[in-house]
Write a structure and sequence with these properties.
alpha+beta, 31% helix, 278 residues
């Protein structure tokens, strides 16, 4: 037979106790004292001690910086290099072509009069949101105010940097040396091969360095298209291989050299490969 449990339920009992006070006259006064055995009072909270509700602080930073831009309408005879120099384009003609490839097409050496080019860098940067931070439940007003101040300083727009000073355009001497060097610069922009030595060698053979030289006795002259200029180019060839941005006068030294080198590159691979009549 299982033993009975000896567990007893604890009872909360309110006790009344009397305190006897004996006076000089022998009278007894009983004063009841009532007390709650387990009662306790919760302390009152002051307004300053109340918990501060969590505060959510969001900082949104907008750092969009747009480079100044302009438009340029291409005129007849202009080149990307010339336009880039005039507008001081950072990165030169290659950057100008990269930004306007859709308008120009796949050949950067052929730009058509009338098309509009955008001068300057593309709009850069996009609005970005800073991650929202949360204040701890015990954060006070002072901490919240400091975070707000930092957010305002972060969101301030950056100061635009001054544009770099335009580089001085390259100048060339008005002689055979200057004409060849200027022609080589234009050829480099257009991807036309050729060297100083190759051009100079062929000029001396064809015209002795005279930009106004003309051949009035050979078969071309008989047909009415005499060879002209430093590299003795006939008008049909000059017109077919004329390099945009240079003069349309076949006697012009730079225009004559670049057209002749353009023709030689197409037929012989380079003016450097020409060692005789061509």
């Amino acid at each position: 037979m299982p033993a009975q449990g000896k567990h007893r339920r604890t009872k909360s009992v309110s006790l009344s106790r009397g305190i006897a006070a004996v006076t000089t006259g022998g009278a007894v006064l009983a004063l009841p004292l009532l007390g709650a055995a387990t009662a306790s009072a919760a302390p009152a909270h002051s307004a300053a001690e109340k918990a501060v509700a969590p505060v959510s602080v969001s900082a949104q930073v907008n750092s969009v910086t747009k480079a100044a831009s302009a438009e340029h309408s291409v005129a007849a005879g202009e080149t990307l290099s010339k336009i880039a120099r005039e507008h001081s384009v950072s990165g030169g003609w290659k950057k100008l072509y990269e930004n306007n490839r859709k308008a120009i097409g796949e050949n950067p050496h052929l730009i058509h009069p009338g098309i509009t080019l955008t001068i300057g860098a593309k709009a850069a940067g996009a609005p970005s949101d800073a991650k929202a931070g949360k204040a701890s439940p015990s954060a006070d007003r002072s901490a919240t105010t400091k975070r707000a101040d930092r957010s305002e300083r972060t969101a301030a727009a950056p100061v635009a940097k001054a544009a770099p000073a335009a580089a001085a355009p390259t100048t060339y001497t008005n002689d055979l040396d200057g004409w060849i060097k200027e022609s080589l610069a234009i050829m480099a922009e257009r991807g036309i091969p050729g060297s100083y030595e190759g051009i100079h060698r062929n000029i001396i053979r064809e015209s002795s360095g005279n930009p106004n030289a003309i051949n009035n006795w050979d078969s071309n002259a008989v047909k009415g298209t005499p060879s002209k200029g430093l590299l003795q180019v006939i008008d049909p060839t000059f017109q077919a291989y004329h390099v945009p941005g240079t003069s349309t006068d076949s006697y012009d030294p730079v225009a004559n050299i670049t057209a002749a080198c353009n023709y030689a590159a197409d037929r012989y691979g380079s003016i450097d490969n020409v060692f005789g009549a061509y």
